[in-house]
Amino acid sequence: MQDPSVEKDRHGESPLTIGFIGTGIMGAPMAARLADVGHRVQAWNRTPDKLTPLQAAGVVAARSPEAAAHDADVVIVMLSAGPVCDEILLGETGIIAAMRPGSCLVVMSSIPVDTAKGQAEAASPHGIGYLDAPVSGGERGAIEGTLAIMVGGEASVFERHRPLLATLGRPTHVGPAGSGQLAKLANQMIVANTIATVAEALLLVERGGADPAQVRQALMGGFADSTVLDVHGRRMLEESFVPGGAAKWQYKDTQTAMAQIARLSLDLPMSRQGDALFGDMLEHGDGDLDHSALIRELRRRNGMPVD
């Protein structure tokens, strides 16, 4: 690991003190990357054992969320859902109250648009900048630092923190607070619907008598090609469903999307059907599998073997 006392990190920026909240599948490699480039990272996780491997990478284990936020230049939050984030962030004993003026709160969790806007409003009177910056790219993207990062908030705050976010992937400013979450909902709609379509296509060719693996290979490079066909299509064929992105979190996001769609008075039938399929998948006990395991739900519907 690079010594945190170095004058500049690998992006040419002075090292920062970063509070990192949530070190699960995504958060752990993200925190490790930030420490690796020379930032001082003090992390908290509800399950303390998950911090132990990170300490070898130079991450300091904080005893509480407030301790992680103490004297931090930036606090990054990577928790599972909006209510969990609000519980940690808001109120007299929340992280926002513990942060110093001039610092910045970056919420990289996937949360409802209105939740992000509320957090931004709560941070502002304390003189704290706010960015909602959800990500796409899964565990592999977090490990490799290639995440797509969709950022909402003030443009000036984004520009100040662009080099930091670039350590984790490719940040793009998409609008005011809450816009990052809107972009993530669009991403999750595309991912969910494409997973369903790829699964249906593979079942079509399987039942029709073609070789699904060879059909997938034939489609690569054409207009039907996509990351989902490449990565998740392979997982479907290999029945390799160790979660990079668990189906239960995909469903959480599609449910959030459906609520936002209703608020905007839109009729989006493809997304409605995709959301229902993931709901059925969870009802059948597959919520902890990778979201590519949606093919199992479609197999059930069609009387095809699942295990």
TrEMBL record:
PANTHER family linked: 3-HYDROXYISOBUTYRATE DEHYDROGENASE-LIKE 1, MITOCHONDRIAL-RELATED
Residues the record marks as active site: K184
Protein name stated in the entry: NAD(P)-dependent oxidoreductase
Annotated keywords: NAD, Oxidoreductase
Residues covered by the 6-phosphogluconate dehydrogenase NADP-binding domain: 17-170
SUPFAM superfamilies the record matches: 6-phosphogluconate dehydrogenase C-terminal domain-like, NAD(P)-binding Rossmann-fold domains
Keyword Transport carried by entry: no
Organism expressing this protein natively: Salinicola corii
Molecular function as annotated in GO: NAD binding; NADP binding; oxidoreductase activity
Domain 3-hydroxyisobutyrate dehydrogenase-like NAD-binding: 178-297
Pfam families: NAD_binding_11, NAD_binding_2
